[in-house]
Amino acid sequence: MAHAPTSTSTSSQAPRRRPTGPERPWRRRGETGFNKPGLAGVLTRYALMILIMVLTVGPFLWQLSTSLKGPMEDIYSFPPDLVPNDPTLANYGEVMRTIPVISYAWHSLLVSVATVITNVVFATMAGYALVAMRFRGKGVLMALILSTLLLPGEVTLTSQYLTVKSLGLANTLAGVFLPTAITSINVLLMATAARAIPQAILDAAAIDGASTLQRLRHIVWPNVRGMASVVALMSFIQAWDDFLWPLVVLSDPAKYTLTVGMQYLNSAFGSNPRVVAAGTIIALTPVIILFVAAQKQFFRGVEAGGVKG
């Protein structure tokens, strides 16, 4: 008589899983990371933003408030009283009577517009050449361009003045404009934008018979217009705000730019900071208007350069 086999468990028992506690907070990505900070992170962010606003916007608001205050109001009170009790435009009228603001602003506008045009055109061409064209010594040329960024402007001030003087451009607006006709940083920015263009497209256009100017116009320029707006705005602000170089080159007060002309207010009205503040606001107003009008193009160009470059 056959004995029935004893039943044995043929299935392997599943391994027992150890109970796990809650994940550590620093391992939860997205919950306590940068995108969703905790209470301490939120407070830190707002504190930093408030500090940055106080350091950047605060001086401008103080200057604006001071320019609208009369001689009887205290401008050095603490905490600062940014709302004038009796607003007045007399300080702006004093500036207009003291210096030829319109003439100086016109000189600054001529230099700034010329600087924008030459930087956009020449920086686009140079950036394209450094990225897409093959020629001997390109690496050395790029190293020289980068090295100029390490030198402060005061180092080359004397040599630039001697060059401008030898060309017969001293005491002229052309002499003010010439050293900033193209800058290294703008060449590098346009080269970064041009690097995002596939080389195969440029090679195909060359095979089809497109000249260098045609490739620049129909392929390169449509892809670098965003960065060109950044270059244009930065070039305008740099030329408009430049003070030291026009002060060195220009000796005739009738040819002063606005920033150099405003320096006269410090000497004539050093004891009246209200008039000096009014002159500062007048000099800043065109830059503020330009940036407000072109901020969309500026940030769009920065974003395109950051993503593509």
UniProtKB/TrEMBL annotation:
* Sequence ranges assigned to domain ABC transmembrane type-1 in this UniProt record: 105-293
Transmembrane ranges? Answer: 38-62, 104-128, 140-162, 168-189, 220-240, 275-294
Compositional bias of kind Low complexity: 1-14
What keywords is this UniProt entry annotated with?
Cell membrane, Membrane, Transmembrane, Transmembrane helix, Transport
According to its UniProt entry, one GO biological process term is: transmembrane transport
Where is the sequence biased in composition, kind Basic and acidic residues?
20-31
Tell me what this protein is called: Carbohydrate ABC transporter permease
What InterPro entries is this protein classified in? MetI-like (IPR000515), MetI-like_sf (IPR035906)
Task: Determine the domain of life of the protein's source.
Answer: Bacteria
| PROSITE patterns with a match to the protein in the record | ABC_TM1
Q: What Pfam families does this protein's entry cite?
A: BPD_transp_1 (PF00528)
Membrane-topology annotation of the record: Multi-pass membrane protein
Q: Which organism is it from?
A: Actinomyces bowdenii
Q: Which GO terms describe its cellular component?
A: plasma membrane
> Subcellular localization, per the record?
Cell membrane
What's the main place this protein lives? Answer: membrane
Name the family the entry cites: Belongs to the binding-protein-dependent transport system permease family.
**Do the record's keywords include Transport?**
yes
| Chain residue ranges for the region called Disordered | 1-32
Could you read off the lineage of the organism from its UniProt record? Bacteria, Bacillati, Actinomycetota, Actinomycetes, Actinomycetales
Sorted alphabetically, which CDD domains does this protein's record hold? TM_PBP2
